[in-house]
Request: fold
Amino acid sequence: MRTTQVKPRVTETTTAWRHHHILDIDDFTREEIELVFQTTRAMKEVLSRPIKRVPTLRGKTIVNLFYEPSTRTRLSFELAAKYLSADVVNLNAQVSSVAKGESLVDTLGTLQALGADIVVMRHSHSGAPYIAARYIEASIVNAGDGWHAHPTQALLDLYTLYEHKQNLKGLKAVIIGDIMHSRVARSNIWGLTTMGIEVTLCCPPTLLPLGLGGEQLPPVKIEPNIELALDKADMVMTLRLQRERQKSGLLPSIREYIQLYQLTEARLARAKPDALVLHPGPVNEGVEISPAVAHGTQSVINEQVANGVAVRMALLYLLSGSQKQ
Amino acid sequence: MSKKVIMIEEDIKRTLARIAHEIIEHNELLKELILVGVHTRGVPLAKRLAADIEGFAGVKIAVDTLDISLYRDDLSSLELKPVVKLTDITATIDGKSIVLVDDVLYTGRSIRAAMDALIDLGRPRSIQLAVLVDRGHRELPIRADYVGKNIPSSRHEEIKVNLKETDGVDEVAIIPTPSKEGR
Amino acid sequence: MKSLLIQGGRIIDPSQGIEAIGNLLISEGKISWRGKGEEAPPQPDYDTLNAKGLVVCPGFIDLHCHLRQPGDEEKETIASGTRAAARGGFTTICCMPNTNPPLDNQTAIEFIKSRSASEGVVRVLPIGCISRGRKGEELAEMGELTLSGVIAFSDDGEPVPSSYLMRQALDYSRAFELPVIDHCEEKALTEGGQMNEGVISTRLGLRGIPSAAEEIMVARDLALAELTGGRLHIAHVSTEGSVELIRRAKEKGIKVTAEVTPHHLTLTEERVIGYDTNAKVNPPLRTRQDIKALIQGLNDNTIDIIATDHAPHTEADKLCEFDLAPFGISGFETALGSLMSLVHNGEISLSTLVAKLTHEPARIIGNKYAKLGTLAAGAPADVTILDPNLEWVVEPKAFASKGRNTPLAGERLKGRVMATIFQGRLVYKDGSITVKEG
Reply:
């Protein structure tokens, strides 16, 4: 126990970071996103050292509670936590909606009793992290919930853009793909528009949820024609198309989707010459994106992955020690 | 809140010049020296010292910056999270003599964190410490090699160092703070 | 049983067109006398309940509720459900047959009737299934059910998916002159749906239930009602489009009645923000525009009655991911309080509200049982006494219902039931109500 209480003044060197959880990016202000950028830069410096480790989260327990399988995101969070010297536990929970076994709330109770400080949660049902936030003292980081949000992905996408362009206001971003079922799309729509970026959505109308393009949601343009959508874009993000979409009757065929919406070199040429190509991964080469573009010079897909670790380190740092209101 | 000014611009200038001379006196191989400024105000102080040393001894000294936020031992209990600034250590520090530069030495915990950071970055030959103000109340066995001014203080006071580069004015003042303890 | 005089209250009885301060005497379980001002009743021997400053009206009638017994007794029983109804001012409640086993035969109905008689504290009128086993394939034995005492038919919880079966149901039921109640939902459009399809569902990443799904079935049922001449009753109307369809059908003379719930009249889809499973209900909470149309529908009699669709669930049932939670709101004990906000906002008059809860539902049920929904002399003494201005905070832990699932937890409401009398007996009384022995 410390004998001296430290109460630094609020200056340009300290910040009243008010988030005890990271559930969605829709309540982040532009200043807060810029703070994440700044902290990420510092974390990238740590990652450039021969010994990639700082003692910042020593003694903290971070639990990865993944109800959906995910190698990439889980590894990213695990590495981020370890580089900050935290103790990491991985729980690959199985969701069985028929025979409930241990319910979500029961599992959370167990984690609480075991002293988890931060729970990184991925779940197939939208809103699950919000329930977690109600029933546990620990900080909850949403690593993706159903169709709803994937805030850390949006932040690393934004950071990747920021690293290349610095000044984000007024840039033109295009998101192509299954917007309806995509938490990455939703979080990016919120994140990009908060930073003053103009967003265009390009997809078959059956994959566009109600209300987007209207006044009650962040301002976006809708353009189902890919050539028109890509005109003078600064950033193009393609989303993974899942085969189930065709099976559930939302698309006549994957073939037609490829014909109308695949990001090819020819189509990419309509964007600005220095436009960046992003993809949240895993990539379906030959479906939503041609292999040439995926491996081309404008693709920053690998940078996204690297930035992911730094962004997550930044977020874990900013969350650590915050108190539940 | 009545502020008591202890040092004005002239005082700071003279004090830094004296420290620069002391550093030159105690370090034969100035070329192997790196001044590492601890964010935030240690950075402009380190730059000024380097300029002074270059002026007096004709040797250009390397200046790097170090952010210790990630090494603090009190992050859990802080209401306000420190903004992490960039740590910029340009060349390898292995075998070099480091002079850490900070504005105020108080409990010693910042310097402990700074040393941990440096040792994570490499294996310096030696680490020395230069501070503008030593206000006492050490909680760890840390001492400064070069001290600008000793200002005995009580825990109910704050020693505020303002520099032109960060605050627009050069000044060191004591500010009484009711029932607050500072670092 | 001693007679009871309810003194000095503002008597509102839309069945007789009465709204005046007066005194009401109850003798031997029936309304026996009504007087004005200081008028004393003809007989001297009675207890007195001081109703000064309060409203006195016929006991509320709920045409749509779920009592969960038999089969899901952990969610509710006839005993707990009727007690909750009494606290809400309801003296007659009609229970839906989606129990386990479903109420599609005489034995099941007899069970409900005997349990209600022995354990219930208010009148329970059963609704029988439309289809055998509620499977939506073959007609249930409507004749036997009628003889057993059902007051309507419904497969509620589910729609009748087959237009052919719905036609047969409307046709065949004509012999019994009982309404066929449909839960209007085109399942092909609502599969996996969690909340109203719109801006909020897009934000929250939840699959939506479009208004069109309800309107398609309403239109279908209205066409079939026109074709067959059967009595159709539309359960829990929730959209502007449905109101419009029903309005036009009534203009054409089609035999249709309709109901709306208190939650669809007062809460929008915004209640779901934050993923509150207590706001998950089917049909879902919709938009402000739909609410405006529903209120208009009440005022112009397109919508005949208000019914709670009381749907209790256990805490554990609702304590899970939004997608996995069952639909339903426990509504008996907050009905009047939440509806009074419409009166206080001037959107509906108190007498219209009372009519929609008493006289109008009684008309749909008919006189088979007794004169319900009225304070006329000789009618059963089913009386509700309420304070239209009392402010109170909703505390689900204090509910008599086993179902604590309400989105109104912690909400401040203005208007509360103070006492409920069923067949002359006080079945609910707030602590502040005093009965002086005479």
